[in-house]
Design a protein that fits this description.
The structure is a single chain. The chain is of the alpha/beta class and 404 residues long. It has 2 domains: 152 residues, Alpha-Beta Complex (Aspartate Aminotransferase, domain 1); 229 residues, Type I PLP-dependent aspartate aminotransferase-like (Major domain) (Aspartate Aminotransferase, domain 2). It is built from 13 helices and 17 strands. The strands form 4 sheets. A 7-stranded mixed beta sheet has the order 4-12-11-10-7-5-6, sandwiched between helices. It has a 4-stranded mixed beta sheet with strand order 1-2-3-15. A 4-stranded antiparallel beta sheet has the order 13-14-17-16. One of its GO terms (molecular function) is pyridoxal phosphate binding. This is Acetylornithine aminotransferase. It comes from Halomonas korlensis. Its cofactor is pyridoxal 5'-phosphate.
Length: 404
């Protein structure tokens, strides 16, 4: 087929579960993209916190091409060298003793939740199956993970949800005390809620969850799909808080744009996933593992992580300057290069209106719910691209304020 696809082809041929912008990017380099007409954009969206090193980073491209000429996929009937190297790299950099590799964050969280229930079943009996999650949380799109997530809109209309799931209030230990008891097998929490509005957990909240889990022998799961692999300014956000989970999930930045996920856990918990208890057809394939290993080794360096923290301050300063001029934001928050700007009361619910205006000005951004403008750019975005992107964002905000 030689014809050039158009945005109308999406409506004709694809399931209507997405509503993409009208522009179709066709090429990327670093933190810039070009569409079918050759128009340039600065990328503050990062593929929703996925493109950790921007587009077509030479380190990732080299890893991909090198591995593509060797071996792509075997299935888990066999193991492979890149998967073993990636697992070792993740274990040696974290609290974990064991890694499970898969293809997405949803898969990683599905595995984590299944592991927690199986571990509790094996050690305490079938009655210990309750999972505590939090309102406005997001843990993936499988039926189990959307049920555990604290946004009912994602599970409504699909039939009865799995039982044994309760929700507390994020950053409220009092709400959790009412839910945790001897029937609790796990608490799952994002160190910073992403889709829920870019809200960091307080240190006291995460420390309190750790204590509560220990008191009833429940497992603490950190969903670091969005905050992990440098995004927070540390390799994983739990390192910033000094609170260690029993299970941690990762994806997004882990592959730098290549589909890959991981679940990490300890030798105390890992044996519950015995042979045949869980699996992933593409999980741990050689191609994904090679790219992820290159991303991990590049990102987990003092230079890159310090750069993330410095870029956070740069983004904050620009957003505060825009706000002094236009008064559209109530609060600017986040960690590292996962940043949210909550809309002021007079602009409540209008964050999504900025996105098409930004596109017209040559900038790609995100939202986190209807009230928060979200930015999750490359961890190595050049300062010049930040500066120019903010000029374009200011023009988009000015148009929102002017109603045009």
């Amino acid at each position: 087929m030689s014809q050039t696809p158009t945005r109308a082809d999406f409506d004709q041929y694809m399931l209507p579960n997405y509503a993409p912008q009208q522009t179709i990017p066709v090429r990327g380099e670093g933190s810039r993209l070009w569409d079918q007409a050759g128009r340039e954009y600065i990328d503050f969206a990062g593929g929703i916190a996925v493109n950790s090193l921007g587009h077509c980073h030479p380190v990732l491209v080299e890893a991909l091409i090198t591995q593509a000429n060797k071996l792509w996929h075997l299935s888990n009937v066999y193991t492979n060298e890149p998967a073993l190297k990636l697992a070792r790299a993740l274990v040696e950099r974290t609290f974990a003793d064991k890694a499970y590799l898969c293809s997405s964050g949803g898969e990683a969280n599905e595995a984590a939740l299944k592991l927690a229930r199986r571990w509790a079943h094996d050690h305490h009996g079938a009655q210990k199956d309750r999972i505590v999650s939090f309102s406005h949380s997001f843990h993936g799109r499988t039926f189990f993970t959307v049920s555990v997530g604290g946004q009912p809109k994602y599970s409504q209309g699909f039939g009865p949800v799995p039982g044994g799931i309760v929700h507390g209030e994020f950053n409220s230990l009092d709400s959790v005390r009412e839910l945790i008891d001897d029937r609790t097998c796990a608490v799952i929490v994002e160190p910073m809620q992403g889709e829920g509005g870019i809200i960091p957990a307080t240190p006291a909240f995460l420390a309190g969850l750790r204590e509560m889990c220990d008191s009833v022998d429940a497992l603490l799961i950190f969903d670091e799909v969005q905050t992990g692999v440098g995004r927070s300014g540390a390799f994983f956000a739990y390192m910033e808080y000094g609170v260690t989970p029993d299970i941690l999930t990762s994806a997004k930045s882990l592959g730098g744009g290549f589909p890959v996920g991981a679940m990490l856990t300890t030798d105390r918990v890992a044996p519950a996933m015995a042979v045949g208890s869980h699996g992933s057809t593409y999980g741990g394939n050689a191609l994904a593992s090679a790219v992820a290993l290159a991303a991990v080794e590049f990102i987990d360096t003092p230079e890159v992580l310090a750069g993330v923290r410095a870029r956070h301050e740069c983004f904050r300063e620009h957003l505060e300057a825009i706000n002094r001029q236009h008064g559209v934001f109530r609060e600017i928050r986040g960690m590292g290069l996962l940043i949210g700007a909550e809309m002021a009361p007079e602009y409540a619910g209008r964050a999504k209106e900025i996105l098409p205006l930004a596109i017209e000005e040559g900038l790609m951004a995100l939202i986190a719910g209807p009230n928060v403008l979200r930015m999750a750019p490359s961890l190595v975005i050049p300062e010049a691209d930040i500066d120019e992107g903010m000029v374009r964002l200011e023009r988009a905000v000015a148009r929102l304020v002017a109603g045009r």
